Amino acid sequence: GAIKGSRRSNPATYTGLLEPVRKAFAKANGVKPALFSANSEGACPTCNGAGVVFTDLAMMAGVATTCEDCEGKRYQPAVLEYRLGGRDIAEVLAMSVTEAEEFFGSGEAKLPAAHRVLERLADVGLGYVSLGQPLTTLSGGERQRLKLATHMADKGGVYVLDEPTTGLHLADVEQLLGLLDRLVESGKSVIVIEHHPAVMAHADWIIDLGPGAGHDGGRVVFEGTPADLVAARSTPTGEALAQYLG
Asked: At what angle do helices 140-151 and 170-185 cross, to 10 degrees?
C-alpha cells in the first residue's frame, strides 16, 4: 500500500533515522532527546513545529507562509544552539541523504545506527532527498522506494511485491529494477506480481497465468524464462512481450 504521511512526516521520521540522531544530539549536549523533535518540546511555538503558518482565507484556498520566527527551521532558537559535529538539528535535517551518509559515517558525528539507514536510502536511489523533506512532497516512486528501504532492514528472505510499478514514471521503474537486482544479489528471493513488460523482460523466471483474465484464467499456461516466453508466443503475454522487445 501507499505510504500515508502528513507534512510533519519526513524520511528521517518514517525510517526511524531521527531516533538515534536525537539521542546523539542529547548525549553530546547533556539535554533531553525530546528537544530535538519538531513535534515535541523543541518545536517553535509560533508554528508548532510545522515551519509554516497556515492562513485560512475563508472562501478561497488557504495560504501557507514560512514562519517568520523560526524561518522555516521548525525549532526554537535555544534548540539550535546545541550542536553535533558542528551542525545543529535543523542543518542536519536539511542535508541530503548523500551528505548525511558522509556526515554520520566518520568523525565526531559518527553514528553507525543512522549510517545503516542512510546506506539503504542511498541503495534505493534516494541520495538526493533531504532528511527533513515532508513526505507530501515526494512522488509516488520516491515514496515506494522509501518504503522498500525500510523493509530492506527486515530479516525476511523473501520479498513479495504486488504491482510495484503502478503509477511510476519510466525512470522510477528503472530504479526499481536496479533495487530488485540488488536484493536478489544479496541472497533474497523476490516474487513480483506484475503486468509491466519492462519488469517481465527483466525477470529470471516467469509464471504466466491464463488463458484469459478473471474467470477465464487461473491456470498456469507458461513457466520459464522471458526469452522462452517470447520464442514460444503461445500466450497473450508472450505476444505482448515480443512486441515490447521489438
From this structure: 10
